[in-house]
């Protein structure tokens, strides 16, 4: 079974978007380099970012996102982003009217069920959970194995939190990846299995 990774681009003060759901300069690093990240040719990054990000993207089998992100992106027009094979959407609402039932999107009512469905679909590939409310719920439920952040050099002051509603301490191991790109710092931690409530 593949590991579950919580992932997103984030401001230095821990936000994935401002209060109006705008990412501002969080994704500037995706267009600030000269190495194409994918076949669209719209994304060009510095070589260190390419080496790190492309390798990670190639391992993702399924992405889990909340209904809010799904609605903001118009469901990616029914095509999972970044070459991912399936998207699991955490929602209590049905798919939008007219939604193509053949699109590789799965609508699930809770985060635990979403992770179970995603792991079933992903096999031994990575299950990526989008940062924000759904990612925070997965972390709080003990379902996340690893946290990855692409930290952009901006301070928002307020907005949508990377860890969403998490309201208690969770330990991470020491970072095992720290890579400097152009306008970004890539970081990776494994989630510690020590329970901080016991300490």
Placed side by side, the strands forming the largest sheet appear as: 7-6-5-8-1-9-12-11
CATH architecture label:
3-Layer(aba) Sandwich
Q: Count of DSSP E strands?
A: 12
Radius of gyration, in Å, reads: 16 Å
CATH superfamily: Dihydrofolate Reductase, subunit A
Helix content: 10-25%
In the CATH scheme, the class would be Alpha Beta
What coarse outline follows from CA principal-axis ratios? globular
Instruction: Figure out the total of helices.
Output: 4
| CATH fold-type name | Dihydrofolate Reductase, subunit A
Order of helices and strands: EEEEHEHEEHEHEEEE
Structural class: alpha/beta
Low-confidence stretches: none
The span between the termini is 30 Å
Can you offer a commentary on this structure?
- It holds the Pfam family RibD_C.
- InterPro entries: DHFR-like_dom_sf, RibDG_C.
- Residues 111-169 form the Bacterial bifunctional deaminase-reductase C-terminal domain.
- This is Dihydrofolate reductase family protein.
- The protein is of the alpha/beta class and 199 residues long.
- It has one domain: Dihydrofolate Reductase, subunit A (3-Layer(aba) Sandwich).
- Helix content is 19%, strand content 28%.
- It is built from four helices and twelve strands, in the order E-E-E-E-H-E-H-E-E-H-E-H-E-E-E-E.
- The protein has helices at residues 47-57, 67-72, 111-122, 133-140; strands at residues 4-11, 15-17, 35-36, 44-45, 60-66, 86-90, 105-108, 126-130, 146-152, 160-161, 177-180, 185-190.
- The protein has an eight-stranded mixed β-sheet, sandwiched between helices. A two-stranded antiparallel ribbon has the order 2-10. Strands 3-4 form a two-stranded antiparallel ribbon.
- The two termini are 30 Å apart.
- 36% of the residues are buried.
């Amino acid at each position: 079974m593949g590991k579950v990774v919580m992932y997103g681009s984030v401001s230095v003060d821990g936000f994935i978007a401002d209060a109006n759901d705008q990412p501002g300069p969080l994704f500037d690093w995706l267009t600030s380099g000269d190495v194409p990240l994918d076949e669209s040719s719209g994304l060009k990054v510095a070589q260190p970012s390419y080496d790190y990000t492309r390798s990670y993207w190639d391992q993702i089998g399924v992405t889990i996102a909340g209904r809010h992100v799904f609605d903001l992106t118009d469901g990616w027009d029914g095509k999972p982003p970044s070459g991912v094979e399936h998207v699991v959407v955490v929602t209590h609402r049905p798919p939008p009217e007219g939604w193509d039932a053949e699109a590789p999107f799965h609508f699930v009512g809770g985060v635990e069920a979403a992770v179970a469905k995603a792991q079933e679909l992903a096999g031994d590939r990575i299950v990526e959970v989008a940062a924000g409310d759904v990612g925070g719920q997965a972390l709080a439920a003990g379902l996340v194995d690893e946290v990855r952040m692409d930290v952009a050099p901006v301070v928002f002051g307020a907005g949508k939190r990377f860890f969403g509603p998490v309201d208690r301490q969770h330990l991470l191991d020491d970072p095992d990846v720290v890579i400097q790109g152009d306008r970004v710092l890539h970081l990776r931690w494994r989630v510690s299995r020590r329970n901080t409530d016991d300490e």
